[in-house]
Amino acid sequence: MNITQNSIDNLNAVLTVTIEKDDYKEKVEKALNNYRKNAAIKGFRKGQVPMSFVKKQFEKSIIFDEVNQLLQTGINEYIQKEKISILGNPLPKFNENMDWDADQLEFEFELGLAPDFKVDLSKVKADTYKVNVTDEEVQKYVDNFAKRFGSMKTLEKVEEGANVKVTMKELDADKKEIEGTEKDLFLFVDELSKPKKFIGKKVGDVVVVKAKEINEDAVTLEQILSWDAGKVAGFEGQLQFEIKEITAMEASPVDQSLFDKVYGEGSVADEAEFRNKIKTEAEKMYDRETDKQMMNEVVEALIKDTKFDLPTDFLNRWLHQTNDKVESLEQAAEEVKKMEDSLRYQLIEAKVAETYDLKVEFADVEEATRNIIKEQLAMYGQANIPEEDLERIVQGSLQNQQEFQRLADQVFATKMMETFKSNVKLNEKSVTFDEFVKLMEEKQKAHSHDHDHNH
């Protein structure tokens, strides 16, 4: 077998593959003998079919299969050996007058070549944001933690924020009790439409109200009373509540026991450290958002400013021939246009990886897996798992091919981000989280506006 490459231009080439009869003769003969031995053909005893008959029936299709196999492996090996970067797959040029009996078979394949270009990240400019967590925000977190880890206390009287345990009875239009309607419920005072009817009442007091006074919103009322929509809509009577118990959630004091509950025993020494840790954790959470935004900006700038041509005609033909859903060249051209940005970015990403020597080694994926699993275990309160147990879980995760690929992609994305951070000219702006959200919404609007213009 012989393969030669002819360049048409920078983006297109043709491979000519010549296959000699000797390249496949032996394999074809072997396959024919197998057929002869095993073929069950009417009128012949097994293994007694004349070779001429077998040849006539099967030789052509066997040659076709063997040649195809040779072409596939030969072309793949050639492309790898010659380090040719191609887009799509080699496209066979059809030859209707192929003489399959000839001593020499010749095939041509079109190639769409990846463009040659350079990427210099130091020429790219992008905005990046640092979200500052204000003292007010830290206070909100502190209040939430105090509430979450608070305790129940019993109250003398109903006040705002109280939970009231009641026994409810339904009354008809004459304020008479409807038999069999008694049930116990909890009412949260702040949800009531008319909280004043309850505020100041004590255990043993009775309150009579219309259903609407519990809550004017029908859906909320259904939930509070555990009624269905039909009952809520049709209920004409009143509701009588006897107060059984009054409680409220009392916020935990901001002290060592709260710090221990939130961050684990002994990891925070005093309130200043507690507030600082809240601030750091919140900023870390926001960093993920700002990193995402920075990535998007850099990617957009790279797609816009990195100029290169694509073998578009080839890609249109390739998509048309290889995708059953694409019925015409026009449709293929539209699809390629839709894919163009992501195709350009794939090429740019590969070029960045090559230029800045970004490789994902097995050890990187192993390390990332270990960190993720440690984090997950810490969330379930198992921070001090023995080393060998941790290793067992890590190696188990890495055995799963899909999971491994997902983690490798994640490691690559992180390395790409670090490369952007160290090489792109980033203009960092300090903002509050609300300002950041507003900025992102404006960018989103501008973006969709641009898209509308471009269509």
Automatic annotation (TrEMBL):
<dbReference type="InterPro" id="IPR005215">
    <property type="entry name" value="Trig_fac"/>
</dbReference>
<protein>
    <submittedName>
        <fullName>Trigger factor</fullName>
    </submittedName>
</protein>
<dbReference type="InterPro" id="IPR036611">
    <property type="entry name" value="Trigger_fac_ribosome-bd_sf"/>
</dbReference>
<dbReference type="InterPro" id="IPR037041">
    <property type="entry name" value="Trigger_fac_C_sf"/>
</dbReference>
<feature type="domain" description="Trigger factor ribosome-binding bacterial">
    <location>
        <begin position="1"/>
        <end position="144"/>
    </location>
</feature>
<keyword id="KW-0175">Coiled coil</keyword>
<feature type="coiled-coil region">
    <location>
        <begin position="319"/>
        <end position="346"/>
    </location>
</feature>
<dbReference type="InterPro" id="IPR008881">
    <property type="entry name" value="Trigger_fac_ribosome-bd_bac"/>
</dbReference>
<dbReference type="Pfam" id="PF05697">
    <property type="entry name" value="Trigger_N"/>
</dbReference>
<dbReference type="InterPro" id="IPR027304">
    <property type="entry name" value="Trigger_fact/SurA_dom_sf"/>
</dbReference>
